[in-house]
Each structure stands twice: as structure tokens, then as C-alpha cells.
Amino acid sequence: MDAFILKFCNNYNLPETATLQLLEKMEKRSCRKGECLVHEGELNSDFYIVSKGIWLGHYLNDGADTSVWFAGEGEALFSTWGYVENTPSLITIEAMCDSELYRISKTELEAIFHSSVEWAYFGRRLFEKQFLNIEEWIINAGSPTALERYLALLEKEPELLQHVPLKRIASYLWITPQSLSRIRAKLKTIKK
Fold first, then answer.
1. Considering only CA atoms, which of 174, 124, 178 is closest in space to residue 149?
2. Max Cα separation, the chain?
3. Which one of 37, 114, 120, 139 has the largest count of C-beta atoms within 10 Å of its C-beta?
4. CB 147: neighbour CB atoms within 10 A?
5. Torsion angle, CA of 126/153/160/22, rounded to 10 degrees?
6. What is the pLDDT along the chain (192 residues), one digit of tens a residue?
């Protein structure tokens, strides 16, 4: 079994057989680094599963580019506003590296959700995880120190450093790129 399938099953508490059934109904798509699924102000109601790569959700706030979330292998990816409200997105969803996705339209996915209790449960679990991720991001902003937020992110998603520019990671951690550089330098000094 592919690693992303196992991660997806674990992330959303879905059996492997159901995940494979879902993937059979989805279209595989390759994306290049920097490609966007949706730009802030555009509409995209499709649902994606990341099979390879890392994606970033970000928006402009008074000219400052703010990173809200990352999605990696085995995670769901979609514009909340496009999917839930059929309105233009308030964020841009951008590939941080060459990536592969599986895509399904909202209409097709909603039909699957209505086909059984198991699929309805998956739909509920999917949105619960999205809520938890956003709440975690908000709560992390209030963590005691930037160093603690950085270390927690490294523990949870170490692959980010390989693919995501430090300015994006700094924004996600609610700090400046300069502060992140100081933290990284301090950690290097401690390790020596």
C-alpha cells in the first residue's frame, strides 16, 4: 500500500478498502512547484487528496502574505469557501514542490457521502479535521515562545524544511523570517 494511502486512512479514520474505492473515482493530477489550485478571489469547489508533495494555504493581509496551513501526503486539500459556500476563496492554495493529487468534483463527492453511513461519517470526519487544524494554528499563535512553536512544527512535519521557504514557515509560526533565522542559529549552536 502506498504511504499516502495509509496516512489518509489514519488521518480520517477511513478503512483502506473505502479509500481505494474513493481513489478509483478520482482523477490523478500532477502539479509543478508554484502552481496554484485556486487564487484568493477565485472559485474552486473541487476536493483533492495529496499523494505527493506539500501544499500551502495563504492569504494577503494588509500586504503581508500570511501562511495558514500546510497539507502533505495523505491529507485532504480544498478551498473551504469554494467547497462549503460555493464562493470565491479567501486563500491561495499553492504547491511548495512538484506534487501529485487526486481530484474529484464537489458534486461527485457529495453523491458518495450520500451513498452510505460510512461515507457520511467520512465526510463529517474530514471537516472535523479541518476545524482542528485551523484551531491548532490559532492556538499555536499564543504558545509561550516562538522556539516552542518551531520545535513543535518540526516534530509534527519535519519534511516542511525540505520544500517550504523559511519566510512561509515564519509566517505560519507568527514570527518574522529574521526571528526564525535567530532560532535556527541558536539550535545549531546548542547541537554543537
1. 174
2. 57
3. 37
4. 17
5. -10
6. 689 999 999 988 888 998 999 999 999 999 999 999 999 999 999 999 999 999 999 998 888 888 888 999 999 999 989 998 999 999 999 999 999 999 999 999 999 999 989 899 888 988 888 888 778 777 766 667 888 888 888 888 888 888 899 999 998 888 889 999 999 988 888 876
66's torsion region: left (phi>0), alpha (psi -120 to 50) or beta? Answer: beta
CA distance 174 to 61: 13
Residue 36, classified by CB atoms within 10 Å of its CB into exposed (0-12), middle (13-18) or buried (19+), is: middle
| Cα 102 off chain centre by | 14
Q: How far, CA to CA in Å, does 154 sit from each of 123, 136, 160, 162?
A: 29, 15, 8, 11
